[in-house]
Amino acid sequence: MAIKVKIPRVKGFRGGLKSPILRAGVAAFLIIGLVMFGIFSYYYIKYQKIVDKRFYGPIFANTAKIFAQPRDVRIARRPMAAKSPITCVMPATLKSVSRANPSSAPIAC
Fold first, then answer.
1. For residues 16 and 23, what is the distance between their CA atoms, to the nearest angstrom?
2. Rounded to whole angstroms, how far apart are CA atoms 103 and 5?
3. If you ran DSSP here, which 8-state letter would residue 15 be given?
């Protein structure tokens, strides 16, 4: 005896678009997507032209030409040693710096 199996046919994608609410939703999504794509394209092209105009000439011609001054190194200073933060902070709080001899100031860590 043979067994017959029936597989129901699926309506597919076209059957789902018969609902007017679904059609309106898909249409609204497509319209909003096209409007957003248009706005993005407009600003992309606008700023692309600005950047291209800037890169057309020499890029680094208008640099500020400001250079940092190195720290003063005096003979009287002791070399900095690796210390714990407590040993760096405690002498700085207990000692006062004399205005006559600023080289006697505690070294900051």
1. 9
2. 100
3. H
